[in-house]
Amino acid sequence: MSSPRDLLNAVKAEIREIDPHEVAAHLGDYQILDVREPDEYEQGALPGAVHIPRGQLEFSVEGRVLDKHAPVAVYCAGGTRSAFAAKTLQDLGYTDVVSVIGGFNKWKDEGLLWESPQTLSADQRIRYQRHLLLPEVGEKGQLKLLGSKVLLLGAGGLGSPAAIYLAAAGVGTIGIIDMDVVDSSNLQRQILHTIDRVGMRKVESAKIALNALNPDVKVLTYDTRLGADNIMDIIDGYDVIVDGTDNFPTRYLVNDAALLKRIPVVHGSIFRFEGQVTVFQPFVGPCYRCMIPEPPPAELAPSCAEAGVLGVLPGIVGSLQAIETIKLLLELGDPLVGRLLTYDSLEESFRTFRVRRDPDCPACGDGAGEIVIAEYDDLCMPHPALA
Ligand SMILES: [Zn+2]
After folding, report:
1. 277: helix, strand or coil
2. How many CB atoms lie within 10 A of CB 365?
3. φ, ψ at 335 (rounded to 5°)
4. What is the pLDDT of residues 259-287, one digit of tens each?
5. Distance separating alpha carbons of residues 108 and 104, to the nearest angstrom
6. Core-most of 21, 58, 146, 262, by most CB within 10 Å?
7. How many CA atoms lie within 13 A of 237 on its CB side?
8. DSSP β-bridge partners for residue 337
9. Model's pTM, two decimal places?
10. What separation in Å is there between the alpha carbon of 256 and the centre of ligand 1?
């Protein structure tokens, strides 16, 4: 019978070991393979390492390290598990395998370059388990969501469900702009807010709700009126804008600023029992001005406050906006670019209409001049750059 030491010596006699400095000097030449346990890997790893715990090596490696004749450098914490792993790889037909002497501990002690790999924590793995089960999302997609930034225009009827679902899904940074306070007449549909927060700034109330739901989410608040003077600064750096505003001048302002910054806008609107959703992908699909070249006269465009809105309706429309946002962030499926989805709650019907880019659009058309961001009046016409 052999002792573990005998086994190790026997294995080491059949593999090649390599000094960490030699790997470090030719890092790009090796496929680096980390065979430690997940909790060890999360503490730090060699740059660009593929991570397959030793216990899963035989069944996972062929899908992850494709070229059996390319140089592979295997490491663990101290050089023992990697020796056995190197022997296994050779048995599986890998022809150029080395085991790193002293493993990650020696690598670190020698002051060689390492990095903290981006991984989900154990808590996150549980929280996002239903996402991880979808191959279209998976750990990579979840990490992408956690690294994404979405700006919500308004913490009202549409912003509420959108914010809650985006936070629940793990969108890492959610910005919210709103300059109102919570009013008890909001609570019929604005599910971010509660009766004990009536009178509080809406952005504060929203932040409390989102932090309570998901501590992974960083909530940035803008307790201000969105205007020509601040919009370019506020939207800067966001991946997607969710527009839940209810007035035409702001929608045109958002449209023009988002075109300039090349940020997609997920647009939603509601009226009494009906809602609509579409996605404005700058210079790919139509913009808001292509779809609505000029605002209707004020008497034909009453706001929610004037016309009323059924309570659940913004929940449907805002949730559709959240779905479209996640699709854009993960490049999933067919977003509503160039399509307007309308919802009629009384008929309980959805319809989709084509919306085309207008070649003569003053904002995104071929001949459109440079747009200057400025406050819009009731006519909302673009301000061309002065020659
Ligand atoms: Zn346009």
Report:
1. strand
2. 15
3. -70, 165
4. 999 999 999 999 999 999 999 999 999 99
5. 6
6. 146
7. 8
8. 279
9. 0.76
10. 9
